[in-house]
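Dear colleagues,

For the upcoming journal club I promised to circulate an example of a predicted protein-ligand complex. I picked one with nicotinamide-adenine-dinucleotide because it came up in last month's discussion. The inputs are reproduced below in full, followed by the predicted structure.
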Amino acid sequence: MLNIAIAGVAGRMGRTLIQAVVNASQDGIHLTGAVQRPGSSLLAVDAGELVGIGRINVSVVASVDQADFDLLIDFTTIDSTLANLEYCLANGKAMVIGTTGFSDSEKQTLACAGDSIAIVLAANMSVGMNLCFHLLKQMSEVLAADSDIEIIETHHRHKVDSPSGTALRLGEVIADTLGRDLNEVAVYGREGIARPRDRETIGFATIRGGDVVGDHTVLFASEGERVELTHKASSRMTFAKGAVRAAIWLADKPAGCYDMQDVLGLRADAL
Ligand code: NAD
């Protein structure tokens, strides 16, 4: 039996994750910890009652050291995830991390933690989007020479980081495939009078509004045709199910920093 704690249970993803973990109890996983930020009015509330599925005898606590678990699923904020990482490192706990917005040096910290504990880190845990990452490599190889590449993403009005972690990951996949450095070729938004577009660049456009769960399009625009790869998430349950799948997959893995391509067996050398 794999004991799981969820960090950020009062959040949009945290609430969905409670349901996803409880729904997967027949797969040998058990929710034993529910963590919310200190000071929350929801501390001590039963996690099942929090999401309307009835009592599950797991009370919401204010920090991971008050929870009993083997693996932490963390969809919170950068500061909170990095603090939880320190606890998991010190106590040999595995982590599935869905939080987005990490800087390059913070990503390096997470990768280094993989020397000691097992981690799945993925900016997007949906199966469909991870297939898109895979397809995008082939599209980039075939289309990039003659195309301008733009990434357009739309999210709900509460999202704090932009571009989304998924949009940046899409950019990284394209840049890595083409041997470009995303830090050098990314263009984040445009305004005013500019020179004609440089073909080597990868443009990002961010839209924020309403309750959009997450839409991403990669546009390859050339003279005479456009090719678009689009993914639209209509429910957070798609990310939560992916996180649960990652947790079950990670349970018997050695220390390492993995991503959803590993979980889903989509890594090029695994196909
Ligand atoms: P949210 O703001 O609704 O939820 C975050 C929750 O974390 C809040 O309840 C907040 O109070 C809580 N929190 C903050 N500090 C905490 C602490 N120290 N201890 C415990 N809880 C703490 O945000 P959300 O929409 O649920 O998204 C959370 C993160 O997950 C974001 O970074 C988002 O981009 C990311 N996300 C990732 C995926 C994916 O597939 N990887 C999908 C959706 C969202």
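Two points we might discuss: The first strand starts at residue 2 and ends at 7. The chain has nine helices and twelve strands.

See you all on Thursday,
B. R.
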